[in-house]
Amino acid sequence: MLTCRKAKPADARLYFDWANDPETRRQSFNTTPITLETHTTWFSRKLVSPDALLLVFENETSQAVGQVRFERIPIADMPDEIIVGVSVDVRFRGQGFASQIISQGCQSCKKQWGAITIHAYIRPDNQGSIRSFTKAGFKFSHESGKFGVPSFVYSKAV
């Protein structure tokens, strides 16, 4: 069983390492490695933003297994859109943690913002993420090019 907690400033390096993992970069919409300076600025801003929820998941021995991030991104076509992103530490991949992280994270998201619909934008070739989000109760909604890269959008109302 995983437990979750809100990310804190001391997690900056952990998030940086997860974000720059080669597989994570390959599956991201922007595949360019992230600099520590850019990451530190972004991470500090997200920790205090009322429109972001960053959660760290730990196993029974307090090892960080992965993270999920929810961001409320008001855009003209969807003024209250909440977008989810997830990553699992390379040491724990292939063990079914991603769907658990997503499911538990969605409940925390609901506690934070109430009943909402969450969207996951997934590259079509990222079958692992498609399986994880589907297992967590997300349904295919539509195709999108919103971030300049073709993606599938999966949605879940919580």
Furnish the topology, listing elements before pairings.
Elements: E1 3-6, H1 12-19, H2 22-27, H3 36-48, E2 52-58, E3 64-72, E4 82-88, H4 97-113, E5 117-122, H5 127-135, E6 139-144, E7 151-157
Parallel strand pairs: 4-5
Antiparallel strand pairs: 1-2, 2-3, 3-4, 5-7, 6-7
Brief synopsis:
This protein has 158 residues and is of the alpha+beta class. Helix content is 34%, strand content 29%.
Q: What structural keywords apply?
A:
single chain; 158 residues; alpha+beta; Aminopeptidase; seven-stranded mixed β-sheet; 7 strands; globular
Textual characterization of the structure:
- It comes from Spirosoma endbachense.
- GO terms for molecular function: acyltransferase activity, transferring groups other than amino-acyl groups.
- This is GNAT family N-acetyltransferase.
- It holds the Pfam family Acetyltransf_3.
- InterPro entries: Acyl_CoA_acyltransferase, GNAT_dom.
- The longest helix has 17 residues.
- A seven-stranded mixed sheet has the order 1-2-3-4-5-7-6, with helices on both faces.
- It is globular.
- It is about 35% helix and about 30% strand.
- Strand 2 and strand 3 form a beta hairpin.
- The mean pLDDT is about 95.
- It has a single domain, classed as 3-Layer(aba) Sandwich (Aminopeptidase).
- With about 160 residues, it is α+β, with helices and mostly antiparallel strands.
- Helix 1 packs across helix 3 and helix 4 crosses helix 5.
